[in-house]
Amino acid sequence: MKKIAISALAALMAMTTGYETAFAAPVIQPIKPALTGDVEAVQYHHRRHGWYGGHRGYRSYRHGYRRHSDGWWYPLAAFGAGAIIGGAISNERRTSYEGINPRHYDWCYARYRSYRSSDNTYVPRAGYRAECLSPYY
């Protein structure tokens, strides 16, 4: 099959290489109107004050300011405090079921093979985790 496809492709290329290519017609350039002499020469003066060239509204340098930022000043301590608070929130202890009767665990382990005591759930036939409710719960 490969040999037939390769030979057909080679024959097609051999037939088409001898033909001339078509050339596009030349593009006609529009005639530009004559320019009038109403242009007046002025001297360029770049003003270096205001928002783009100098004063930003405060007198001294502030630590944490970056020149090409969004224009607001953020102290580095604010980011450090956010990292500490975020770390404390993420390290909260998970709820544990320590007060549950040990007979409850035994009953759920005997009834469900997929029972997990850390969160008191099992996987029923539907596929999602469900809470185990025993007569000892």
Automatic annotation (TrEMBL):
Belongs to the BA14k family. The keyword Transmembrane helix applies. Has immunoglobulin-binding and hemagglutination properties, and can bind to mannose. Essential for virulence. May be involved in LPS biosynthesis or polysaccharide transport. It is a single-pass membrane protein. It comes from the Bacteria. Keywords: Cell membrane, Lectin, Membrane, Signal, Transmembrane, Transmembrane helix. The keyword Transcription does not apply. InterPro entries: BA14K. GO terms for cellular component: membrane. Pfam families: BA14K. This is Lectin-like protein BA14k. Residues 1-24 form the signal peptide. The chain crosses the membrane at residues 72-89. It is found in: Membrane. GO terms for molecular function: carbohydrate binding.
